[in-house]
Amino acid sequence: MSAQRHVIVGAGLAGAGAAAAIREADPDASITVLGEEAHEPYERPGLSKDYLQGESDADSLLVHDRGWYDEHDVTLRTGAHVDSIDRSAGEVVLADGERLGYDRLLLATGSAPRRLPVDGIDLDGVLTFRTREDSDAVKAAIASGDPLVVVGAGWIGLEVASAARAAGVDVTVVHDGSVPLGHVVGDVVGQRFAELARSAGVRLVDGTQVARVHGDGRVQEVELSDGQRVPASTVVLGVGITPRTELAEAAGLRVDDGVLVDGSFRTEDDAVFAVGDVARAHNAWVGEPVRLEHYAAASDGGPIAGRSMAGALREGEQWAKPPFFWSDQFGAGLEYRGWADPERHHVVLRASAPASETGTPWFAFWHDGGRLVAGLHVDGWDDADTVKDLVTSRAEVDVARLADPQVPLGDVRV
User: Cα separation of 374 and 393, whole Å?
Assistant: First the structure.
């Protein structure tokens, strides 16, 4: 019997993790990883954190050490664009017309940053943030010392603003919400992130949008929907990302805010899988399909997808960890675990000092009738494991005790 042919479209964390899991499960399998970027697979979180601030180099971002692909007989093809999937023939078609056969195919195509449909958006100095080249461009803009506007107050936007402020750059963050991160954490917790950003010298402009970008070849000014004009030599767009589902859609696979897959990342076609940003997968902990744009989803999902492709899933194995992400901004470090809807679930703030007092721990928890669904700590490293345990076990808690910083977190269960 000939070796199974595994083709992975997408050379990021999820795709590289899947390749490693396939090789571990099947020493004889043929594995080809196709990536559009010129680099070996790398991890993206550092792009807006230590790499952006010049505290780490490109090699520190790599998923596997240089030489790993050759050592493990994995064919890595960078600069490779896949035009289409021929499911009936079991082939992917590359941009140059080459057809590459597969027995199992993994779509790990990730997402693309959104742009704004406004005049001037294509001027020099208007940047998105997704790739290593994007991070390098923002790093160069920060080094210039000129004013910078960040559009969007999500995690990426705030981390870019943090890096720029650390370098002494004048930063304005423009967003259409009432508080930063409001769509993720709600107004109560979002207000604390606003305090943190303002205490670092960020100018926050809430409840407005970009109407137009002005400049002569290069951006010089951002005009807002409320009439304000903000000087800027660089604009960084952090207005979200869109899953790259075009290959799946054209191939007739089911798509609904991501490629629909089960808990082992298999589509309705037994030969095709999807994982990472592009996949909307059933998560057993959440209890429903979710699409996550965070490191942990790719890190956890890639190996499961690889074992699933190789027919080597452990008994009962599926994606079942609570969602998790972390951020570093304005001198504070945080972790969020779980799955909360800030409009539906109740929030409990546990804090003894203003958010501007970095280094003083504070927490937020979300619950449904006293049963935890998510938890966030900011600089609460001594209690990080307790937060993890409370959320992962969906603990039932005494809400009053949970809100009281004098009560140890280990003593809040009912």
Answer: 11
pLDDT of amino acid 191: 98
| CB 281 within 8 Å of CB 14 | no
Amino acid at 54: G
Domain tally for the chain? 3
Q: Does a structural domain hold residue 121?
A: no
- CA dist 319 and 58 (Å) reads 30
Burial per residue of 113-135, b for 16 or more beta-carbon CB atoms within 10 angstroms, e otherwise: beebebebbebebbbbbebbebb
Please give the torsion angle defined by the CA atoms of residues 368, 373, 376 and 381, in that order, rounded to the nearest 10 degrees: 120
Concatenating the DSSP letter of every residue in 252-303 gives: T--BSSSEEE-TT-B-SSTTEEE-GGGEEEEETTTTEEE---SHHHHHHHHH
The residue written with tokens 């949008």 in the block is 209
Beta strands at 259-261 and 279-283: parallel, antiparallel or unpaired:
parallel
Residue carrying the six token digits 């027919």: 311
Would the pTM of this model clear 0.85, i.e. be above it?
yes
Q: Give the CATH number, domain containing residue 24.
A: 3.50.50.60
User: Are residue 131 and residue 229 in the same domain, yes or no?
Assistant: yes
Give me the pLDDT at residue 303, please: 98
**Chain centre to alpha carbon of residue 85:** 26
User: Per-residue pLDDT tens for 309-362?
Assistant: 999 998 999 999 999 999 999 999 999 999 999 999 999 999 999 999 988 999
Structural contact between residues 242 and 118, judged by C-beta atoms closer than 8 angstroms: no
Distance CA 300, CA 290 (A): 14
The domain that contains 359 carries what CATH number? 3.30.390.30
Residue 382's pLDDT band, with cuts at 50, 70 and 90, is very high
Q: What would the pLDDT profile of 56-105 be if each residue is shown by its tens digit?
A: 999 999 999 999 999 999 999 999 999 999 999 999 999 999 999 999 99
Q: Which domain holds residue 221?
A: 126-239
